[in-house]
Amino acid sequence: MKKYFLIIQATWAEYMAYRLSFVLRRVRMVIQLLATYFLWRAIFSGSQQLFGYTQAAMLTYIMLASLVRPIVMSMSSLDLGGMINDGTLSNFLVRPISIFKFFASRDVADKVLNLVFAVGEVTIVFLLLRPPLFLQQDGVTLVVSFIALGMGVVLFFLANMIISLLGFWTPDVWALRFLSFILTEFFSGLLFPLDILPQGLFAISRLSPFAYFLYFPLKIYTGGLAYADMFSGLMIAALWIVGLSFVYIRLWRRGIAVYQAEGK
Amino acid sequence: LNFAALLAYRINFINSVLSSIGWGAFSLYSVVVLTTRITSAYGWSRNEILLFNGIYGAIMGAYHMFISVNMGRFSRIIHFGDLDGILIKPIDSQFSVSLWLVDFTMILRILIATSFTVWILSILQISFSLSQIAMFVAFTICAWIVLYSVWFLVLTNTIWHTNLSNLVRLLYAFESMGRFPKEMSQQLGGFLFFVVLPITLIINTPTRALLNKVVWQDVAILLLLAVALGFAARKYWLYALRHYASASS
User: What's the gap in Å between the CA of A140 and the closest CA on chain B?
Assistant: First the structure.
C-alpha cells in the first residue's frame, strides 16, 4: 500500500509544481458555480416553489452539486488514453504496480485537494451571497446519501477508465471523451435535478449510470426520495458498478493483448 | 486539408459529429427545460431568453469553428517549440496561429442554433428592418473581435508560462456567462461584473439589435472594446514574440 500513498503524495507535489494551473481550474469552478447560482435565482425570482422544489432545496442542490462535483468527477484517469496512444504505458507495465490502483491513487489525491478547495470556495460564496439553504437532519438519509455518493465516485471512475482503455483501439480518445462529457453534463444532474425533465427522459436517465454520479446522492440529501426509492436506486447503482467492473476487466485484458507500444 | 484530416479517422469523425450535435442540442434543451415554468426573468420574456441562447449557440459556434480550435493548441505549439516553424514562414504569425485549423463539425452546432433562433423569432413574430439586420451583423463582427482579442491576450501569456494548457478551459468557463441577459451578470456586482462585461456584451448587443432594444451605451462600449482589445492583442503578441525562447529547439 505504501507505494500508492507515495503516488498520492507525488500527485500533490505535481499539482503544487503547477500551482497557477491548479488555481485556474478552481477559478473556473467558481465561475461555473456563480453562473448556475444566478440562473437559478432568476428562475425562482417570481416564486417560492418550482418543479416540486422550494428555493432553499434547489439552491442547496446547486451549491452541493458544485461542492461534490470535483469529488465525483475528478479527471486524473484522463491520462491513461494518452499513455496508451503514445506508448508511455509500457513504462508502467514493467513496474510492480497495478495501473488501476495507480490511477485510483491519483484520483484520491485529486479528490482530496479539490475537496479542500471546494469547501473553501463554497463557504466564501455562501458568506457573500447568503442563499437560503436546506439542512438534512435525518441521520439515515444522511448516511444513505453518503453511500450513494461513494457509489457515484466509483461509477464515474470506472466509466472514465473504460473510455481511456478505448485508446487501445483508436488513436485518439478525445472525441469519445467529449461525447461522454456532454452526456455527463446533461444526465448527471449537474445543471439541474433530473426529475424536472419530462417523465420519459427522466425514466431513461434513471436507468443510465450518469444519474448516479450526482443526481441520486443529492436527491437523497435534499429529502426527495422515500426509503424504497433510495433502496432501488442503490441497487441500480450497484448493478452498474458490477457491470462496468466486468467491462473494464475484459477491455483491459483484450487491450493488453493488442497493445503495440506505438511511439516508444 | 482540414476536412481531409477530419475524415482521416472515421470513428473519430463520427464521434466529433455526434458530440457537436449533442452539445448544440443539449445546451439549448437545458435552457428550454429550465425556463418551462417561468414567463419572465430580469425583465426579459421566456422567449427572449431562449433567443439569447439560440444566438449564443450560433455566434459561439462560428467562433469555435474558426478560432478556438486554434487556441486549443496554442500552449502546445509554444511548449514544444513548433512556433519556430510558423515564425519562419512568409505569413503573419498571429494570423497563422489563430486561423490554421477549421473545425468543420461545428457547422452542425451552428445549424442547430440557427434553426432554433429562427424558430424563436417566428414565435416572437418580429419583423426586421434592414438597419436592424445591418446592426446585428456589425455588432456580431465586433463581438467576434472582442472575444478573439480577449482569448488571444490571455493565451499570449503562454509564451512565458508554456505549461498553462488549461487557460483555454478557463476562457470556456467565462464564455457561458454570455448566454444570458446582461442584467443577470450584473448580479455579480462590482469587480466581477467588470471582468465579465466584455463577454456579456458579445451576445447581448447583437441580440438587442434584433429585438429593437439597442442600448447605445453598450454599443459604444462594444465598439471601443473591439478597437482597443484588437490593438492590444496585436501589440502584446509582437511584444511576447521578443521573449519567445523556442522551447524545444
Answer: 31
